[in-house]
Design a protein that fits this description.
about 20% strand, single chain, Udp-n-acetylmuramoylalanyl-d-glutamate--2,6- Diaminopimelate Ligase, Chain: A, domain 1, 6-stranded mixed beta sheet, 7-stranded parallel beta sheet, 3 domains, 23 strands, UDP-N-acetylmuramoyl-L-alanine:D-glutamate ligase, Protein-Tyrosine Phosphatase, Chain A
Length: about 475
């Protein structure tokens, strides 16, 4: 295995005895055929890709039940299967043609198998969570540490019960560090993930308004994030915390009694943002350079540095890795628009919440030279529920006070709330775009032409919730 490995392919194998031992707390009984204790089984949750001899684990999703494909799994050559007790009660006449282990919950069974594999592999587990920036921080961590030691990490945003299970089950024998991203939609979910992942280090990067519609308050969100300590041993584990987040720090003191390593922007001296969006800062006498702008990115880098210190890695090598970090598509990645004169697109439209919009927009507005126009395309922020109107109005008020914006284009059902407050103080044109991406692109170009502004020598910034797929608008500029 190379030092860095992004793979989350399930390579873990289990003997019959290990299948029973790993799931003993959840297993109810075995059915039908005797289980061969010595046989090595692969594990599959998808009957379509199951290989002959694999043990089939049917999962329950919002729109599917893996039990519906048991017969297909056996036809594909499955060596056996787990079956949920509630399903078996419903289909009591079902006869298993091969060994079956009945369990109380197949999703938790997946986690239990992942825990078993995590324990026998011995890799250091770094769990991380936060209201915004989790995936970017994960990718920054991976960029740095995969060049220094055998490292794996969560793929994409696979950060729920299924994704964390798959991540842990992908740990290779050579892996020294596994970075596990943990997400949540409600209280108790990160606690469950942590209990099974048993992290050695836990990083919380912030507490913000994402999911506030479900959790009701920032206090509840902070509590949910601090559930990441649930599976960590206070005697040996380390919490790495954003000291500039007062609510996080207050909650963490109640939730965690072990070692803490706190980072703060105050530690980053001589912070400099260059016109080409590169950032530099000094920490402990060492200069660090980033290819991305903004204090929020410096904060992420400080979190990486704290992890590096915990792993006893030289600062010079961590600095070299940070300089090589490039964000992925939709998370601040930039490109030039073909066929236009110096039109630079900054695609930060993977997701949005009030804190991330303000932080990333501030960095964008500060990071360009004065002769470049700045056009913003902003989509609505989802998952705010009852607070949506208020939060969008606050954002509009904030936008109206910002300097350096040459035009603001709004997309989504939430646009009127932003527009109504932004117009009160904005000194730039504001327009809501509607229709297909092609129609919105046409409307945007016409608006710029009418106002005497051209789509040239400019930076076009995209930010919004994923549902709006804002990147399709500049793509439509290129369509004849």
């Amino acid at each position: 295995m190379s030092q860095g490995n992004m793979s989350s392919k399930i390579d873990a194998r289990f003997t019959g005895d290990e299948l029973l031992k790993a799931t003993s707390a959840l297993a109810v009984r075995t059915l039908s055929w005797p289980l061969r204790s010595e046989k090595n089984y692969g594990l599959s949750t998808d009957s379509r890709t199951l290989k002959a001899g694999d043990w089939y684990l049917p999962l329950l999703g919002e729109s599917f039940d893996g039990h519906d494909f048991l017969d297909r799994a056996f036809a594909q050559g499955a060596g056996g299967a787990f079956v949920a007790e509630h399903w078996l009660k419903k289909y009591s006449e079902w006869k298993a043609p091969l060994p079956v282990i009945v369990v109380s919950d197949t999703t938790e069974t997946y986690l239990a198998l992942a825990q078993w594999h995590r324990r026998r592999m011995g890799a250091t587990i770094l769990a991380l969570t936060g209201s915004s920036g989790k995936t970017t921080t994960k990718e920054m961590l991976f960029t740095v540490f995969s060049s220094l030691l055998p490292t794996q990490c969560t793929q994409k945003n696979f950060n729920n019960e299924v994704g964390v299970s798959q991540t842990l089950l992908s740990i290779q024998p050579e892996t020294q560090l596994m970075i596990v991203e943990m997400g949540m939609r409600g209280l108790g979910e990160i606690a469950l993930l942590s209990r099974y992942a048993e992290p050695d280090m836990a990083l919380i990067i912030n507490v913000g308004s994402a999911h506030i519609g479900r959790l009701g308050s920032l206090e509840n969100i902070a509590q949910a994030k601090c559930e990441i300590f649930e599976g960590m041993d206070p005697a040996t584990g380390v919490a790495i915390l954003n000291g500039d987040d007062a609510r996080l720090m207050e909650t963490a003191q109640l939730a965690w009694s072990g070692e803490q390593r706190v980072y703060s922007l105050a530690e980053a001296e001589n912070r400099t943002l260059f016109a080409n969006e590169k950032t530099s800062f000094c920490y402990c006498g060492k200069t660090f350079q980033l290819s991305v702008p903004g204090d929020h990115m410096i904060a992420n880098a400080l979190a990486v540095i704290k992890v590096g210190e915990r792993l006893e890695l030289p600062l010079s090598k961590v600095a070299k890795g940070l300089a090589q970090f490039v964000p992925s598509e939709g998370r601040g990645k930039t490109y030039f628009l073909e066929g236009f004169q110096r039109v630079r697109v900054v695609n930060d439209a993977y997701n949005a919440n009030p804190e991330s919009v303000r932080a990333s927009l501030s960095a964008f507005l500060q990071g360009h030279s004065g002769d470049q126009k700045r056009f913003l395309i902003l989509g609505g922020m989802k998952e705010l529920d009852a607070r949506s109107e208020t939060e969008h109005q606050k954002l509009g008020q904030w936008l109206g006070q910002q300097k350096g914006i040459d035009a603001l284009f709004l997309v989504g059902d939430e646009a009127p709330w932003v527009e109504s407050t932004a117009r009160k103080s904005a000194d730039y044109p504001i327009q809501t775009l509607r229709g297909t991406p092609a129609e919105m692109a046409k409307s945007l170009l016409e608006s710029l032409q009418t106002s005497g502004r051209a789509l040239e020598n400019c930076n076009l910034y995209l930010k919004g919730s994923r549902v709006y797929a804002l990147e399709k608008i500049p793509e439509a500029f290129l369509t004849p």
